[in-house]
Amino acid sequence: MSEFLSPLVYQLGTGGVLGFVVGYAIKKMIKIVIVVMGAFAALLIYLEYKGIVNVNYDKFASLVGSASGLSGKASEWLLPIVAHLPFAGSFAV
User: Fold this and answer.
1) pLDDT of 8-55, one tens digit each?
2) How many structural domains is the chain composed of?
3) What range defines the domain where residue 66 resides?
4) What 3-state class would DSSP assign to 54?
5) Comparing C-alpha atoms, which of 64, 23, 22 is closest to residue 41?
6) Single pTM value for the model
7) 47 and 17 in a common domain
8) Is residue 45 domain-shared with residue 88, that is, in the same domain?
9) 26 & 44 share domain
């Protein structure tokens, strides 16, 4: 029983710890990207306020609208990838 349980506990523990570390790193990277995008938007608004740049908000709104349409299409290819991720991850160990 011990010879069966020890490798199982090791694999589950290692997978759990590595999964936590990867998830934590991805979470931090996403936060950094969001902060950089927010700083860029704030800089753009400030530069427009000072009269250095001119922002066409109608065109910007249409650009954001088209980008949100792409997020719906992304789920079409992202869902199969996420569904097969555990199977593909089993070969990595």
Assistant:
1) 777 777 877 888 888 889 999 999 999 999 999 899 889 999 999 998
2) 2
3) 56-93
4) coil
5) 64
6) 0.57
7) yes
8) no
9) yes
Task: Clarify whether residues 93 and 68 are in a common domain.
Answer: yes
Sign of dihedral through CA atoms 38, 43, 48, 49? positive
Token reading at 32: 């950094």
The closest of 37, 29, 39 to 67, measured between CA atoms, is 37
User: Which residue, 30, 29, 27, is CA-closest to 19?
Assistant: 27
CA 31 to chain centre: 9
What are the phi and psi torsion angles at 19 (to 5°)?
A: -60, -40
Contacts of 47 (CB under 8 A, 6+ apart): 53
Q: Are residues 6 and 42 in the same domain?
A: yes
Q: Give the number of C-alpha atoms closer than 13 A to the C-alpha of residue 84, restricted to the C-beta side.
A: 5
